[in-house]
Amino acid sequence: MAGGLDGRRVAILAADGVERVELEQPRQALDGVGARTVVVSIASGEIQARNQDLEDAGTFAVDELVDAVSVDDFDALLLPGGTVNPDKLRMEPAAVRFVRDFVQSGKPVASICHGPWNFVEADVARGRRLTSWPSVRTDLRNAGAEVVDEEVVTDGNITTSRSPDDLPAFCERIVQEFAGAGQPAGGPS
Q1: d(Cα 107, Cα 76) in Å, to the nearest integer?
Q2: Do 7 and 74 form a contact (C-beta atoms < 8 A)?
Q3: 137, 150 contact by CB (below 8 A)
Q4: Is 40 helix (H, G, I), strand (E, B) or coil?
Q5: Residues ≥6 apart with Cβ < 8 Å to 78
Q6: pTM of the model
Q7: Sheet of 46-51: strands edge to edge?
């Protein structure tokens, strides 16, 4: 499927505490088929990554600030996990609005592990079939989602997975879902 995402811009919304592998592996899968991934965050500079939430795992450069971008600038959205990352994002109105607007736009959105917490805060979980890290599932249920324990789940424009163990299936599915989404942002390139 080389080149399957040529010209597609994918926002990766993340903050300090992002689980490194959950940003890095999907980004590599998307870049590998021609996407242009853009790290969007709540503060400029770099975001601190973690391994298993506890160990320092280096940084990622921030490309854009969430309050300076629009859903119209991107073709798809990736929400990696880590417990601290989505907790920081859900406290920032611009990040919550970006997630809500993205889901409501119908463009594809993918989230893994603790990342689906963003759907709770954005009030877009209701009526959706989702999966996540086990500790997030009660919040998703309380927000009106049908929660399942499956490797990867796609419901409409939202794809979710449970944990880093699911990354191979998650990466394969998001490449398919993102490739099936209309014309690249800004029209044909």
Answers
A1: 6
A2: no
A3: no
A4: strand
A5: 10, 11, 12, 13, 23, 26, 27, 30, 37, 109, 110, 111, 174
A6: 0.94
A7: 18-19, 46-51, 55-61
User: Catalytic site residue 113?
Assistant: yes
Q: Which helix (H) or strand (E) holds 6?
A: none
Per-residue pLDDT tens over the stretch 79-120: 999 999 999 999 999 999 999 999 999 999 999 999 999 999
22, 77, 127, 137, 184 from 105: Cα distances, Å = 24, 11, 16, 24, 14
- With beta carbons less than 8 A apart as the criterion, state whether 64 and 37 touch: no
Rounded Cα gap, residues 153 and 166, in angstroms: 11
Residue 166 to residues 61, 69, 73, 133: CA-CA distances in angstroms? 25, 30, 29, 11
CA distance 5 to 52: 30
* From 5, 18, 30, 113, the catalytic residue: 113
pLDDT digits (tens, 9 = 90+) for 117-158: 999 999 999 999 999 999 999 999 999 999 999 999 999 999
> Amino acid letter at 115?
G
Q: Which two tokens stand for residue 183?
A: 């014309």
Q: How distant is the alpha carbon of residue 125 from its chain centre?
A: 14
152 three-class SS: strand
Residues in the chain: 189
